[in-house]
Amino acid sequence: MAESARQAGYFCISGRPVYGGSFANLEKVPEEVRAVRAGLGALGLTELFPGVDGDGDALSHSDLRDALFAWSKGAADYTGARTATLVIYATGHGFELGTDWVLAPTEYEAPDDQQNTDPGAVTKPASFIRALRQRGDLAQVLLILDACGAAPGGEQALLDTIAQAPYQTIDDQLDLWVVAAARRSEKALETVFSRAFTTALRDATAPSTDQPHLDLTQVMESVQDALSRTHQKARTVAGHGDPRCRALPNPRYMPPEPPAWLPPGWGWVSRGVVNDAAPGWYFTGREAALRTVLDHLTGTGTAPPLWLTGSHGSGKTAVLGRVVTTATAELRAALPVVARHGVLPTDDLILAAVDVRGRTADRLVADIARSLGLTAASVPGLLAELRRPGSGAVRGIVVDHLDEAKESAAVLTELVESLAALPAVRVVVGAARQLPDRPARLILDLDDPAHQGASSVGTYLRTRLAYGGHVSEGAVAALEAICGGCFAAAVAAADVLVREGTGSLERACEAAVARLDGLLRRTLQELFPRTGAAVADTLTVLCSFGDDLFLDARTWAAVASRLVGTSVPTPLSPRELAACLPACGTLLVRRDAPGREPGPGDAGDVHGAWRPRHPPPAARRRAGAPPYRAAPPARRTPRGRPRLGQRPATPARRPRGRRGRSDQRYAIPPGRP
C-alpha cells in the first residue's frame, strides 16, 4: 500500500492578481486559479501548496519556485521507481526580457520600459523544473503557462531539460510536457484558456478499465476548438521522455485487478461486488447514513450504541465496510481516484470492527483488543483497559450482524452496552432488526425512505454497468424497479450482465428475482422458525396469479397455518403475522386492503395487504412444484382470481365426492366447520 501511495499525482498553482508599475492588475486571476484548482482536483490530484486566503488564492511565481525546491529535497533519498507526476499551472503576465521569456513579478514596481526589469525579480519557466531535480520519486511534469506569448517560455524549459539530459542517468531523467496558452506575440485573454482547459478535462473523462490517464492530445484538441472563436491559439510544446503524458489521471478509470490490501472481511462488500476476487469499486450513495455513522463514531462523551438496521440486502454491511476501509489516511490515499467520492472520514479513526455471526462475547474480545492495540483476553479485561486514562482519543467499535451472534442477547448486554457506557468509546451495531424486548435508543434504518434506497440502487446499477454490461437505460430502469431498495439483488443482477454481456438481461433479472426471493424466505423463516416456509409459499403462490394481487393478513395466516397442518399445534394468527412484517422492509409491497376495517382485537397492520416486491422466480413458475405452490396455468384467468380484500372462497359449485379436500385451483384449504 505504501508503494500505491507513491504512485501519486500532484499539482500546484502560481499567479497573483496585483502587479505594480507598468504591469496592469489581472483582476480575473483568482477566477482562473479557482477553476484550475477545481478541475485538477476533480482528477484526483493532490494540491501541494493550497492558497491561504481562499480557493482563489495562489503563490507568486518566485514563491512557487522556492516551495518546489524545498518539496524536492523531501524525497531526495528516495530510491524506488519513479512513479509520481506533477502538474504546474502558472498564470499572469509574461514577456520577453532580452533573449528569455519570463513571468513578470507581482507586487513589483516594474519600470515603464519593461526591458529594464531586474532579471533577479522575474521567474523563468525552466526554473520550476530545475527546482525539482532532487525529487527522487517524480517521473513526469506537465507545465502549463497561461500568459501572453508563452510558447517561447515553454520551448526554453523544454530545451533546458534536453540540455541537462546527457549529464544524468536514464533513471534520473524527468519527463516533461509543456502547454502554452498563447503563441509568440499573441495576447492571452483572462479566463479564456482556463475555462477551455477545465471544460476539456471534464469532457475527456470516461468510464474505462484500460485508460488510466487522459489523452493530452485529445484534451488540447478540445481546447483549440474552444479557442477557435478567439485570436488566441494554445500550443502543446512537444514532450521530452515518455511519449505518453501520464500527469492527468482519468478519474473514472476502474482498476481491472481486485485490491489485496483492504481489511479482511470488509473489502468486497464495501466495493459493491460479489467476492474478494471480483475487481471494481462501485460503492455509491448512502451519504446521509455514512455521515450519521461517522458522526457517532467520532462524537464526544458517552452515547448508547447506534443501531444500523434494515432488511436483508439493504446495504448495512456495505455502509459499515465503507467506514472500515477508509478509516485512515493511508487507506484513503491508496484508494483509486474513482473510489474517492462521497462522505469519507476527515481524520484517522481508532477503530475495531468485528463480524459476530455465530460468535460469543468472549470470542470477540481478542479481535477487538488486537485492533485497538490492547492485550485483553476477556470482557472484564477489555473494559478495564479501556477505562484506563489514555490519550483521550475516541475509540470506535463496529459490531456487525449482532442479531446472528451465537448468544446475541448476551453479546449485547455483556459486551456492546458495557463498551458504549465507557466515556471514550463509541459503538455502532449492524443488524437486520433490533433484538426482541431490547428496544434501541439510537436507530438508523436503511429501509426508511429518507435514505432513498431505491434511487441509490439505481445509481449503483448505472455506475457498475458503465464498466460492463452496457445495457440501455430502459433495461437499467427495469432492473431498478425489480430490485427496489435491495443492493444484494442489484449486485447479483449486475454480476450476470458484466460476466455474460448484454444478451443476458433476462438472466440478470432472474438473478435479481432469485436473490430477492431467497432474502424474503430467509427473513420469514427467521421471524417464524416453525412456519416460515409455509408463510413464504403462501404469499408467493397466491400473488403469482396476477401482478395486482395483494394478500391480506387473515387469509395469509389462515392458508399458511393449514399448509403446516398439525405439526404446529397453534395456528399462526393475523395479529402475529402483521406485527412481524415490517421486518421484511422493502422486500414486500403493502397497501390497504379494500373494504377491510380493523376488527375486534386487531392490532398494528392487520388490515393491510401485501405481495412480494419481485415477480415469482422462474424456478417456481415451472412444473414440478407441489400443487399448493403453482396453480395450473390454464386456470389463471381474471375471472378466477381471488377477490382483493376478502377471504378467497372455495368455488361456488363443488363437485361431489371432493368434500373435505383442499381446493387445488386457488391453493386454499376448505373452510373450517
UniProtKB/TrEMBL annotation:
MF (Gene Ontology): ATP binding
In which residue ranges is the amino acid composition biased (Low complexity)? 624-634
Keywords from UniProt, A to Z, are: ATP-binding, Nucleotide-binding
| Compositional bias (Basic residues) | 610-623
Q: Which domain of life is it from?
A: Bacteria
Enumerate the residue ranges of region (Disordered): 592-673
Q: What is this protein called?
A: ATP-binding protein
Q: Which organism is it from?
A: Streptomyces chromofuscus
Lineage, broadest ranks: Bacteria, Bacillati, Actinomycetota, Actinomycetes, Kitasatosporales
